[in-house]
Write a structure and sequence with these properties.
With 100 residues, the chain is mostly helical. It contains three helices and no strands. Helix 1 runs parallel beside helix 3 and helix 2 (45-71) runs antiparallel to helix 3 (75-99). The protein starts with 5 loop residues before the first helix and ends with a helix.
Length: 100
Amino acid sequence: MLIRSGKVQFLFWTAFAVVLLYLWIVTVGLQTFVLPDEKPMHFPQDTVLLMFVLYGLLAVAVVAGTIISTMINNSFYQKFFSVFVIVALVTLLATKSMFG
């Protein structure tokens, strides 16, 4: 069994959490705004609050992963978190352009 350092384990679990948070955001957004069964009578404030909280957690996790991977000079995780920053911002921009 290969034993990794604590920093690399932190990067792995942070990357795992980032992917799960992003999938959760996309799933909630699609179910609420794109594919609803019927048009909602009122604006779903609880869902929007959940998405803001998830985006906040995603931003904190991505920044933490980027900083730690830069500090230990791990190029794989530097590229991973950099791509995830771009994907999250493009998703936010696409959502803003679709729904105004």
